[in-house]
Design goal:
Blueprint (H helix, E strand, L loop, with lengths): L5 E9 L4 H11 L2 E11 L4 E10 L4 H11 L6 E6 L4 E7 L4 H11 L5 E8 L16 E3 L7 H15 L3 E4 L8 H6 L4 E5 L11 H7 L4 E8 L9 E8 L6 H24 L3 E4 L2 E4 L3
Parallel strand pairs: 5-6, 5-8, 6-7, 8-9
Antiparallel strand pairs: 1-3, 1-4, 2-3, 9-10, 10-11, 12-13
Helix pairs in contact: 3-7, 6-7
Length: 286
């Protein structure tokens, strides 16, 4: 279905009877036609989550936003509203391992990922990625020098602001963000992790896994928080391995899992299907 002329609203509020009716009636009163609806009531937290796609022939984004500004307080509602035709601005961060970057660029170029890439930031020089096509994409080399982490993150934060990036993707960016920067990017910074979390932390995770004789390996995409690899999980996948697989086999299989998990995560996020629920997420799959 074309996104032209469509809007998507995501919301969460304290759960109670009549929320769906109230939101639907509000849209109907504004001559809006609902074309897709998903909702979830979390009995544990007592919160209600909803994603609605609707068409409006009478109103543009700003009048609709104003109407929800007036309506939302009655439900103590947290909400976002977006014109589905507007592409989000995304910045990609990468280190030496570039398989996730290469895959993301390919899916973006063929139109699978509806986003505007506003920059690639790397802590390695552009020659490291000489086989990749950065045509039209700003490339920024921000090395991390000894005792220079604070300055490097200040430059990174400045680039994020100047580019208008709405989402930052750590596409195997092997630098740990400070708690301060992670806090600034809360809810709009995604990391692809090289194991099925919780997993083997530290260096050479696949070698650790091999020594322990694992039978499943995987990848996890999650929001970045100040607690390393502890952020709300968005998407995961696994593959079965055997005693015959070498560490190199595990690395090869792991690269494939990481690529597809990150791609699925980006598609979900870009289509407003991921809602934060405390330390967890609500993900409305299509």
């Amino acid at each position: 279905m074309s996104a032209a002329g469509q809007f998507v609203i995501t919301l969460s509020c304290p759960d109670r009877a009549g929320i769906v009716a109230a939101v639907s009636n509000h849209l109907a009163a504004n001559q809006c036609n609902i074309v897709e609806a998903q909702q979830f009531g979390d009995a544990e937290t007592g919160r209600f989550f909803m994603r609605l796609v609707f068409e409006s022939a009478q109103h543009g984004l700003e009048p609709l936003r104003t109407s929800f500004d007036d309506f939302a307080p009655s439900l103590k509602m947290q909400w976002t509203l977006r014109d589905r035709s507007r592409r989000r601005r995304v910045m990609l961060l990468v280190s030496k391992f570039d398989h996730c970057l290469a895959d993301t660029l390919y899916r973006w170029r063929i139109g699978e990922l509806a986003m505007d890439i506003v920059g690639v930031v790397a802590n390695h020089p552009i020659e490291t990625y000489r086989h990749l096509d950065f045509d039209g994409i700003p490339f920024h080399y921000l090395p991390v020098e000894r005792d220079g982490k604070v300055q490097q993150e200040a430059e990174l934060w400045s680039l994020i602001g100047q580019s208008g990036a709405e989402l930052v993707v750590l596409a195997r960016y092997m630098q740990v963000l400070s708690s301060e920067l992670a806090g600034r990017l809360a809810g709009r910074c995604i990391n692809i992790h090289h194991s099925f979390l919780p997993g083997f932390k530290g260096a050479r995770p696949y070698h650790q896994a091999h020594r322990r004789g694992v039978k499943l390996i995987g990848a996890t995409a999650h929001f970045v928080t100040g607690d390393l690899d502890e952020g709300p999980i968005i998407e995961q996948d696994i593959e079965r391995v055997t005693h015959a697989d070498t560490p190199d086999d595990l690395i090869r299989i792991g690269r494939d899992i990481e690529r597809r998990v990150l791609a699925r995560t980006l598609r979900l996020y870009l289509d407003d299907r991921v809602l934060l629920n405390g330390s967890k997420t609500v993900v409305f799959h299509s």
